[in-house]
UniProtKB/TrEMBL annotation, chain A:
Keywords: Cell membrane, Membrane, Transmembrane, Transmembrane helix, Transport. SUPFAM superfamilies: MetI-like (SSF161098). GO terms for biological process: transmembrane transport. PROSITE patterns: ABC_TM1. It comes from the Bacteria. One of its GO terms (cellular component) is plasma membrane. It comes from Phytoactinopolyspora halophila. Pfam families: BPD_transp_1. The chain crosses the membrane at residues 5-26, 62-87, 99-119, 131-150, 179-200, 231-253. This is Carbohydrate ABC transporter permease. It is found in: Cell membrane.
UniProtKB/TrEMBL annotation, chain B:
Coiled coil: none annotated. This is Sugar ABC transporter permease. SUPFAM superfamilies: MetI-like (SSF161098). The chain crosses the membrane at residues 39-62, 98-119, 131-148, 180-203, 236-257, 287-310.
């Protein structure tokens, strides 16, 4: 009896948390007239119009920019973080702990404290409203997490394996490619996923350093906040489409996600 | 220090070059740099992109400079700081930042622990429910904030008022009557899943045998929870609070979308207020001074937090 009650409660909590997402999805399939009713209604004739008109409204370039900024910054992060994590985890560097804490301390630096010079410097360099500026900023944003995560994954590689590779005369690059990478591939995928999620969802840098050319999906969504009132169905369709990639990826990799977000502190 | 064979990076170099009769020392040093080399690109990149702009912020904070008036830049010393300290809105934004961060982290942690305990049982559809619960954390924050502002909290057509209407809530305009609560609600919705998953991982790393032994010894469930589960979870809860706080302190999206810091400045936090001063008021000097003060405040909190983090990771290894 108690068990059944707890199960019902759990299901209720789950549905409650999911409800705004569910509502967002179904509103995207409504006609504009069905989206704003009093009381809100579950009964409506579904339509794909909102999704269709999104791309007529020019959503394409925003998605392309987001894809570029998230994808390129993630590649760059991995390219920088994997060697750094290797040095910190496998080669016992003096003061490795200090370096590690320097990295994480940059995550504690509020971004508002650096946004003004970044804006001014980017303006002087002529790279405002440029997707590559976002790539650089997102790389800096995700690099500390990636170094921490990759380090904790590399720490789990048994020393004997590396010593054996060294005995066999494998070079550094060979050791990394043939021995290390296959062993930490799941960790590498988790790290990449987290970087992609944070970059894809990022709004503050994007709204401040981009305009018409390099703006990303969150900026596109904000464009629905017009003073004349919102087109709820259109906006919900856009919000659904914008969230879809990350939601699907996150569903598929729940365990790695937790491990990654806790920077490897949770097994 | 001078007797060390490997000099610390950036430390004092010997004043005269090492004589060729000390090849071992030179090789050791080269070996040191060779081992350090893979670290350097990431380190240099991070220093350039994060530390250099902050040094520039400090410089800007000592200048009076309005972006829309070219050539208005001049050195004013600490005048910006004096203005910021006298700024009532800045103080309010600081208080709002604390309220939003504390409110969100505490509420989402309490809910997260409750959800984790509920999920840490075997029942039909467990993985489905876990998937449902994690979703708010994955939804793009801008999208989530838009959904909350419109379809959920709208005074006329929102679901929340429709659900609460039997309780006599009527056409409550949440975003302007209770702006902080509205923002915190959207944030708690987003962060509870993260806390729940983290605590769930903690619960599942608990050793079952010990719990069973306690049950055999006749300990009550509430006793087991207080004396065994909660101490075990402490590390996970601390970690969740810390990581949550790092992110929530920088909250911008929800405020930008749901309240624009309003009504007036009632719900502006520091990130949003600095953004307003810099990009809507174009006052670079004052925005920079505020940024420096925020960092100073963060460092005080972070010193304490880093120690906590250090302990968490020290226990791990």
């Amino acid at each position: 009896m108690a068990a059944r009650f707890l199960t019902t409660l759990t299901w209720f909590a789950g549905l409650l948390f999911f409800f705004p997402v569910f509502w967002m999805i179904i509103t995207g399939f409504k006609h504009e007239g069905d989206a704003q009713t009093d009381p809100p209604s579950l009964v409506f004739t579904p339509t794909l119009d909102q999704f269709r008109t999104l791309f007529d409204a020019g959503a394409g370039p925003y998605f392309l920019n987001s894809l570029l900024a998230a994808g390129m910054s993630t590649l760059l992060v991995l390219g920088l973080a994997v060697p750094a994590a290797y040095a910190l985890a496998i080669r016992s560097l003096p003061r490795a702990k200090d370096v590690l804490f320097f990295f994480i301390s940059t995550k504690m630096l509020p971004v508002v404290a650096v946004i003004v010079p970044i804006y001014v410097i980017a303006g002087r360099l002529g790279v405002l409203d440029n997707v590559w500026t976002l790539v650089v900023l997102y790389t800096a944003m995700n690099l500390p997490i990636a170094v921490w995560m990759m380090r904790s994954f590399l720490m789990e590689v048994p020393r004997e394996v590396l010593e054996a590779a060294a005995m066999d005369g494998a070079s550094l690059v060979q050791t990394m490619r043939r021995v290390l990478l296959p062993m930490v591939a799941p960790g590498l995928a988790a790290t990449a996923l987290i970087c992609l999620i944070f970059a894809w969802n990022e709004f503050f840098f994007s709204i401040n350093v981009t305009a018409s050319q390099a703006a990303t999906v969150p900026v596109f969504l904000v464009g629905f906040m017009t003073s004349e009132g919102l087109f709820w169905a259109q906006m919900s369709a856009a919000a659904t489409l914008a969230s879809l990639p990350v939601v699907l990826a996150g569903w598929a990799a729940q365990k790695q996600l937790v491990r990654g977000l806790s920077m490897g502190a949770v097994k | 220090m001078t007797t060390d064979v490997i000099p610390a990076p950036g430390g004092q170099r010997p004043s005269r070059p090492l004589a060729p009769s000390f090849p071992a020392a030179r090789n050791t040093r080269r070996e040191g740099w060779r081992r350090r080399a893979p670290l350097l690109p990431a380190l240099i990149f991070t220093i350039i992109v994060t530390q250099v702009p902050f040094l520039v912020t400090i410089w800007y904070s000592l200048n009076s400079w309005n972006l829309v008036r070219p050539g208005s830049e001049r050195f004013v010393g600490l005048a910006n700081y004096a203005d910021v300290f006298a700024d009532r809105v800045f103080r309010q934004a600081a208080l709002n930042t604390v309220a939003i961060t504390a409110g969100c982290v505490i509420a989402s942690m309490i809910l997260g622990v409750a959800l984790a305990l509920l999920l840490d049982r075997t029942f039909v559809g467990r993985s489905v429910v876990r998937t449902l619960i994690i979703t708010p954390f994955l939804v793009m924050p801008v999208a989530g904030a838009l959904v909350w502002k419109t379809t959920m909290l709208d005074p006329l057509f929102g679901v929340v008022n429709a659900v609460l209407s039997p309780f006599g809530v009527g056409d409550m305009d949440w975003a302007s009557s209770l702006p902080l609560l509205s923002v915190i609600t959207a944030l708690v919705w987003q962060w509870t899943p993260f806390m729940a998953l983290l605590v769930l991982a903690g619960l599942q790393s608990q050793e079952r045998e010990v719990i069973e032994a306690a049950q055999v010894d006749g300990a009550s469930p509430s006793r087991i929870f207080r004396s065994m589960t909660l101490p075990h979870l402490r590390r996970y809860i601390e970690l969740g609070v810390l990581l949550g706080a790092i992110y929530v302190v920088n909250t911008f999206d929800q405020i930008y979308i749901m309240t624009q810091g309003g009504p007036g400045t009632a719900s502006a936090n520091l990130p949003f207020y600095i953004y307003q001063r810099a990009f809507l008021g174009f006052d670079v000097g004052q925005a920079a001074a505020m940024g420096v003060l925020v960092v100073a405040g963060t460092i005080v909190v972070a010193l304490f937090a880093l120690r906590m983090l250090f302990r968490t990771f020290a226990e791990e290894s």
